[in-house]
Amino acid sequence: MPKGRSRVVLITGASSGIGRATAELLAGKGYRVFGGVRAPATTRPLAGVDLVPLDVRDQTSIKACVEEVYSRAGGIDVLINNAGVNLVGAVEETSIGQAQALFDTNVFGILRMVQAVLPGMRRQGAGLIINISSILGFLPGPFMGVYAGTKHAIEGLSESLDHEVRAFGIRVVLIEPPYTRTNLDASATQAEGRMDAYAAQRRRTAAAITHNTNTAPEPKVVAETILRSIEGPYRMRRPIGQAALLRWLRRLLPARMFDPALRKAFALDR
After folding, report:
1. For burial by CB atoms within 10 Å, which of 80, 110, 157, 218 has the most?
2. 31 is catalytic
3. Residue 234 catalytic?
4. What is residue 201's three-state secondary structure?
């Protein structure tokens, strides 16, 4: 980082939830924070945060956003890829178009952002890319199978990327939250091809997910982990709370023991 300027952070999806909580926390810690949002004019302002137009599905929008941050702050030291959407429904019920749209935001959005900031990070010889994954990045997500697929993709992409860019002084981090109390589930798109065969089970699983979300930690908990990943010793994966326990249990327990517990958690028939 050049001398004489604060560390510059660009956060995607900063209008609400984890993105907003992270922007607020980092700004309070003295970082120069740019929050990427689709509509800055209608987004509630955040003290100390510069809101900039950004749609991670649009290459032109991404280019303009990165150029604006560079012109105003001189560089980007930390990219936090937080923007994402959810999709609820059985795999069989999900249209190909819906699946493609989900991957366009959750996976290709990250790929576009990474490719936009890497040239600058390579020039300055340093950088940190933080990708928001999920507990579903390493566990199954019944009735969220395509969403879980995007998070599994992010895990593989991030780990591969870290090996590629390490020689340039750039590292990649995965944040793996459990359920978090945001509007991600409340605003989730429903699978288009709903089938009676899945209806009863879908309702039970949805009720379990809603209960877990309503009793989950606030986004600030995730924001604090992101701050530690910036300021603390490097760790590739940072599972949070229950996610840390479940990652450990899945490695330790045989499938015949772990699988029934997972099905019970999602209120699935045995």
Report:
1. 80
2. no
3. no
4. helix
